[in-house]
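Predict structure. Chain length: 367.
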Amino acid sequence: MINRMKATQTVVTDYNVGAVARTLIEAPAIELEELYQQSFNMVTAAIPVSVYKSFNFTALAAIAASGLIRTTIAAQQTDQRISAGTQFATTSTSSVYVASTDTTIAAGDTYADVQVACSATGSAGNLAANQSFTTTPTITGFVSATNLSPFTSGRDAETADQTLQRFNDYISTLPRGTTASLSYGLSTAQVTDSNGNAIETVALSLVDEPYTRDATQPIALVNLYIFNGVGSTSAALVAAAQKIIDGYTQTDGTKVAGYKAAGVPTTVYAATEQDLNFSAELEIDTDLTDWATAEAAATTAIDSYLLGLPFNATAVVAKMEALLMGITGVTDVPSMSLTANVTGGIGVKLMAGTLSFTQAATTEATS
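Prediction complete.
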């Protein structure tokens, strides 16, 4: 504004700080600057929104954690029904898990696996394995309830950065039949319960073209492998993934294009799970920890490490030893059952088998 006044007249010449003319135009200048800044921010925010809308691409909502709870009762003479809506609570967290469907324990049987979902969405509902639960209302003959596998499907609402990354991945899949396209398609597969809660999703996937390593294999052949992040990937999840890859027709007649290339046999398989048994001797400092705590931490560390490995990965002995040494109170790992790295084959997911730890000679800190 000062430059305009200088260019359009010669009467006012004092534009120093505190001058009358400068003081008069400072207030509208500040407001104009604020308007420009707000306009810039709005346009910046609107650009990705408009692009997303043009592709009918929306941010992912939060998902509730879900899984199975092994519910054990004393044998009864009649069938015992665990009704949908039964609540399972654990002392380890404040989360409450609700039975999704009715589950019946037949007369004479002592347990059933109840499908549950967290009452609140988000990652806070994820839970480590082997937690104890109480039930509301109380189940007749109730003995115990525990989750044999961890709950890992809980997911927070997608952030703007995560949406942008997923959109970039989506754009890269528009030319169907590519490795990126197939991987993205697999990542969208899920199995839901009767309430629409995702109870199983694809956590890992692998696109394998056999001819790249074996010239006798057909060039037009693609094998896809999926893993649900927990173990025992279900046939239902495989079927859901295959449907997405092949393409399908919705109930209203709308055709949804698949992600495979036309004429190329593309088959989805569940991961081949290879259990890796592992044992180690741990020496601990009893002034820093007790054996039960150290043993539980060691089990969690190795289980989490193996569960987090991708397809065809190598379980590195040195890494596993380092994880054990990183546990508070562990001072030495005198021996381990594994002496060499273990690598999974094509479509193989290494999993924790039998994990056992024994206590070596105990040392105490000197004062």
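Summary: Residues 16-54 form one domain.
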